Amino acid sequence: MSAAPGDPLIGRLIDGRYHVRSRIARGGMATVYLATDQRLDRLVAVKIMHGHLADDSQFKERFIQEARSAARLAHPNVVNVFDQGQDHESAYLVMEYLPGITLRELLQEYGALTPEQTLDIGEAVLAGLSAAHKSAIVHRDLKPENVLLADDGRIKIGDFGLARAASANTATGAALLGTIAYLSPELITRGVADTRSDIYALGIMMFEMLTGEQPFKGEQPMQIAYQHANDSVPAPSTVNPDVPAELDELVLWATARDPADRPADARALLEQLRDTSRSLATSIVATGPQQTMVLPPLSTSAAAMTAETQVIAPAGAAAAPPADTGTPRQRLALAAPARRRRGIAIMLVVLLVAGLAAVAGWWFSSGPGGSVTIPELRSVAEADARVILTDEGLLVASETVREFSLDVDAGLVIRTDPPAGEAVPRETEVTLVVSEGAEPTTVPEVRGQPEADARAILEDAGFVVAEERAERFDGEIGDGSVLEVRDAEGSPLAAGTDSFRGTPVSLLVSVGSIPEVRGLTLDAAQAELDRRGLGSTVATETFDNDIAAGSVLGYGDLPEVIQPGDTLPLVVSRGPDLVEIPDVIGLSINEAIEALRAAEFGVDVRTNVPESFLWNFTSVQNVIPSQDGSAVRGSTIIIEAFV
C-alpha cells in the first residue's frame, strides 16, 4: 500500500478530519485511500469518487447510495461505513479498514478451493447478505472482488455501490453495471433484480471456488451474457470430480435459470448450506483419515478387501432417491437422512477396523506400506536430485519434464510431482520438473496505446504488469495513454528490448498536457492547476502590452518532467510599460527625434521640409499622442513640423 507517485491527495486532510496516508486501490468510479481519522485516532479506508465523474449526477447518486445502503447494515460480515461527505467537487465515504486480500486474489493464487473452504466463505457471505436482504437491500454486484478476507480471519462483503431497495426491481441499462460473469438471467434479459439475483451471483462464486474457473467463458462479454441467459450452469463436479454431490446440488439450486426455482433469499440458502456443511463434516470425519486404516489380513486379496469394506444398508431402510429426481432443493432434502444412515454405518466399520491397529502400525512403519516424505529439491541439479530421491527409497521417472523458469537457472529442479512435503508410499515414482532457464521475449511497442490495451499487449508478451502506475504530464501523448514501460528498478524499457517472460514491469501513463494559463487571472490559473493536481507559485512579474495587470503571461522555467503534485512557476503581467512623452514642442526636428529616441520611443516625422540641414532649423509644432500624456515604451510618436 505504497503511495501512488505524484498523487495529489497523499498527505491531504479531507474535511478537516481524515489525513490521507497512501493509496490502496483504484477502480472505475473511485479511488480508495488509507487514512487516519484524527478525531477518533484510528485507521480508515476513504473512498473518493473520481473528479471527472463529479458532474455526472447519476454516478454521484450511485456513489452516495453505497453509503446509505451500507450504513443501514450492522453485521459482522458487512464492511462498516462510518461517514460520507463532499471534498471540493468529489463525494467521499469513510469505511472500515480491513488489511488483507480479496477472494479474487485468493482464487488467483490457489485456483480451486476445498469444499470446506468454499463452505466457510459461502457461509460468511450469506450471513452478511442475509442481513442486507432482511433490510430489503439487494447488493446487485456480488463477485470475488467484493469479498474481503481480512488478515485476522474475518470475511466481509463490501462495495454496495449498485445496491438498491429490493422492491425497486425495475431497471434500465444501469442494471447491467454489475460484472457480467455473475449477472443472473433475469438481469440480462429483463433488467430486473431482486434477492434471488444475489443468490445466483453467489452460486456462480461457489462454482468458481470449487473449480477454479467460471462456468461460462467467451472472448466478448456479450457471449458470456448470452450463455447466462440461455444455458444452465453445469454441476461443479463436471469440472472437478472431487466436488461432493451435495455441493453440486447446492450450486445448481442457487443458479437455477428460473428465479422461482432458487432460494427466496440469502437466509433460505444459508440454512441449507449449514445443514449441508454439518452433513459433510460427519461424512468427512467417518470416511477421512480413518479410512486409510482399513486393511485386510496380509493374505487377503484386493477383491476380498473391497468386499469387506462395503457398507450394506440395514433391512427396512428407505432407499435413497434417484440422483435425477426432483429439483436440486428436493434432492438436498431427501439426501439428508441417507447421509446420516451412511455415517452411522461407516462408523461401525471404523470400530471393527480398530482391532487391526497393530497390523497397520507395522505396515505403515517398516512394512511395504511405509511412507516417505518427498524432499524439497528446488534449485538442486537434476543429477543430484535423482540420487537424493533414490536414497529416500523412491523411483525417479525416466522422462524429465522441461519448463521455462524466470527464477530457477537452467538444469536445476523447479519442483517435483508429487510435490515436496507430500507423504507417499515407498517406491512411488517421482517426476522431476527441470528448468530450461528463462523463456525469451521482446518488449512490445505500447507508447501511445490506452493503458488497458498496453497492459493486455504486455501480458500477452509474457510480462507481469504492476497494478500501480506512475503518471506524468505530456503534450504529445493524450490522457490515459502509455508513455513508457519501466523495469522493476524504474528504468525505461525501449520497445524491441530482449527480455524474459515473467519479468515484472510497470507503466508510466500520460495525464495529458499541462493547462494553458496565458490570459487567465492569477486566481483562475491557480484554480485550473489545482484541478489538475498541480501546485503553483509566482516566479516573476513583468510588463506586457497585451495582457492586463494581474493576469498570467505563462510559465517560467519548467522542469523537463512534470508529474501530478509538482509546483509550476507562473509569470504575471504588470500591464503596459508606460513612459512620459518628452516635451519637444519648439525643438528642431532633429532635436525632437533625439529626445524621443532617448526615451525609447519610435518616431514618425510628418513635414514638408526636405531632410537636410533644414531639419536643424525647423521647429516641431505638434506631437501625437498628446504632449501632456504617456505612451507605451517602444511605441511610435508622431511629430509634425510645417512651413
UniProtKB/TrEMBL annotation:
CDD domains: PASTA_pknB, STKc_PknB_like. Pfam families: PASTA (PF03793), Pkinase (PF00069). It is an enzyme of class 2 (transferase). Residues 18-274 form the Protein kinase domain. It catalyses: L-seryl-[protein] + ATP = O-phospho-L-seryl-[protein] + ADP + H(+); L-threonyl-[protein] + ATP = O-phospho-L-threonyl-[protein] + ADP + H(+). Keywords: ATP-binding, Kinase, Membrane, Nucleotide-binding, Serine/threonine-protein kinase, Transferase, Transmembrane, Transmembrane helix. Its EC number is 2.7.11.1. PROSITE patterns: PASTA, PROTEIN_KINASE_DOM, PROTEIN_KINASE_ST. The chain crosses the membrane at residues 344-364. Residues 367-436, 437-511 form the PASTA domain. GO terms for biological process: negative regulation of fatty acid biosynthetic process. The keyword Zinc does not apply. One of its GO terms (molecular function) is protein serine/threonine kinase activity. This is non-specific serine/threonine protein kinase. It comes from Microcella alkaliphila. The lineage of its organism: Bacteria, Bacillati, Actinomycetota, Actinomycetes, Micrococcales.
